[in-house]
What we know:
Blueprint: H1 2-48, H2 58-74, H3 78-95, H4 98-111, H5 115-132, H6 136-149, H7 154-165, H8 170-183
Helix pairs in contact: 1-2, 2-3, 3-4, 3-5, 4-5, 5-6, 5-7, 6-7
Amino acid sequence: xxxxxxxxxxxxxxxxxxxxxxxxxxxxxxxxxxxxxxxxxxxxxxxxxxxxxxxxxxxxxxxxxxxxxxxxxxxxxxxxxxxxxxxxxxxxxxxxxxxxxxxxxxxxxxxxxxxxxxxxxxxxxxxxxxxxxxxxxxxxxxxxxxxxxxxxxxxxxxxxxxxxxxxxxxxxxxxxxxxxxxxx
Length: 184
């Protein structure tokens, strides 16, 4: 009888210890998540206040990208994960962190289930490579992917227009539009 009582008490004691560790891990995740959210919210407030991203330090941009990626990894909501990876990729594009752009968008592509949203992500990735990073081969591949794999999407039409002006200067684009207007 004493042995059974000892086993029961020991089991309760061990079970309660496990709950505390789980609670501690959850509390640590929440505290870490809160501090990551503060980094992202501070960045958003700076942008909203009119601070251009190009005026922010590389360290600040690196920290925001890192925070977005970590938030994407600790959240369990798939849409929120995609949103944070997309945000990290977009900020990386503005900061010219080429490899970060690629990895963030690849993660977002892998998580996105909605075909139209996936098409939008591919368009955003193509646009960043086109307009910001001047990686025209990657942009061309993405635009062509949109035209073939997402042919009925709004983004496929946008990709067709983007391919027409891919790699051209503003002056060249203006001349192209003037020529089209004359022809019509």
